[in-house]
Amino acid sequence: MAEVDKGDNVEKKLRLGVIGAGSWAVASHLPNFAKRDEVEFVAVARKGRDLLEKIKNDFGFEVASEDYRDVLDAGIDICLVSSPTVNHHEHAKAALEAGAHVLVEKPVTIDPAEAWDLVETAERAGLHLVCSFGWNFLPMIQGAKRLMEEPEAARQQESGYPRQGQRGEPMADAEDEQGERYL
C-alpha cells in the first residue's frame, strides 16, 4: 500500500491494477473506484493501444500496457480482472500469486475446477477473491431472496412495487385457473 502524508495522519492507499479494461470496466468499475479516496490508479492492461492510452489518461493510471504482466509488476494491492472470461483463471491466479486481492467479473471461469483453484489459491495466500455480483446486495434482491426462502411469507406479502406492462401502464391483477394470483 502507498502511504500519503496528510499532516498528522498517514493515509494508506490501495494500489489498483486492472486487467481487461473493456466497456463494463470503464463504464462501471473504474468510475466507482474513482469515487474512493483510498484507491490509487496504478496500472491497466487491455488490447488496443488507442483505447488503452485514452483509459490511462482519463483515469490517471501510471502504467498502461497490452501485457497483463506489466500490471502485476507495478506492485498492486488490488486487481480488477475484467478480461474475456476465457482468460479469467490465468489472470486472476497470476494476480493472487503476485499478492493482490482480486475482484473478478462474472462468470468467474468457464471450468468450475478452475474457479475452485482460484478459491484455494486465495485461501492459501490469505487474500480476498470476490466475484462481481453486486446486485446480490441490493435491498430488493435481499428481499426477494428472503421471500424465496420463506414461501409462506411470499404468499402473504405483496412486492410493494406497482406492476407495469411493457409500456409502463398499470397491469390488471391476473389469476391462474385455480384462482391463485400471479405476483
Secondary structure elements and their pairing?
Blueprint: E1 2-6, E2 9-19, H1 23-34, E3 39-45, H2 49-59, E4 63-65, H3 68-73, E5 78-81, H4 88-97, E6 101-104, H5 112-125, E7 129-131, H6 139-149, H7 151-156
Parallel strand pairs: 2-3, 2-5, 3-4, 5-6, 6-7
Antiparallel strand pairs: 1-2
Helix pairs in contact: 4-5
How would you describe what is shown here?
The structure is a single chain. With 183 residues, the chain is an alpha/beta fold. It folds into 2 domains: 2-132, Rossmann fold; 135-183, no CATH class. Helix content is 38%, strand content 20%. The protein contains 7 helices and 7 strands, in the order ββαβαβαβαβαβαα. The chain has helices at 23-34, 49-59, 68-73, 88-97, 112-125, 139-149, 151-156; strands at 2-6, 9-19, 39-45, 63-65, 78-81, 101-104, 129-131. Strands 1, 2, 3, 4, 5, 6 and 7 form a 7-stranded mixed β-sheet that branches. β5, α4 (88-97) and β6 form a beta-alpha-beta unit. α4 (88-97) runs parallel beside α5 (112-125). The longest helix is centred in the middle third of the chain and has 14 residues, at 112-125.
Defining traits:
183 residues, globular, 7 strands, 7 helices, alpha/beta, Rossmann fold, 2 domains, single chain
Quick structural overview:
This protein is α/β, with parallel strands linked by helices and 183 residues long. It has helices at 23-34, 49-59, 68-73, 88-97, 112-125, 139-149, 151-156; strands spanning 2-6, 9-19, 39-45, 63-65, 78-81, 101-104, 129-131.
